[in-house]
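Quick illustration, no need to memorize.
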Amino acid sequence: MGELYDERRQEPRYATSGIYYMQSAGRSTPGRILDLSVNGAMLEQVEGQPLVEGSRVNVVLSFSGQPEFVADVLVQHIVSGHVGVEFYDMSPEHFSTLATLIDQHQRSR
């Protein structure tokens, strides 16, 4: 399954270090952001999160030196403690933050 998913990717992913939270009334347990692209991310699965493949949830993404931003994501797959998500909807301001992060990764290569 991993190979099939890799072949479907349209944009390169970059290993990164950041944290994410499920958006709710209060902060949930943070999880690590393992990689990032303009279209999605690979997240560390956190025990007790109500994530189901095919569901849409809002996550808060946080990276050092950047403002936090919120993304509506579609959970594509959950395998071996990793959650692959596709960004579904994001405000222009938050997309700009994401694009800046991707640009920084591209320049550092």
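The first strand starts at residue 14 and ends at 22.
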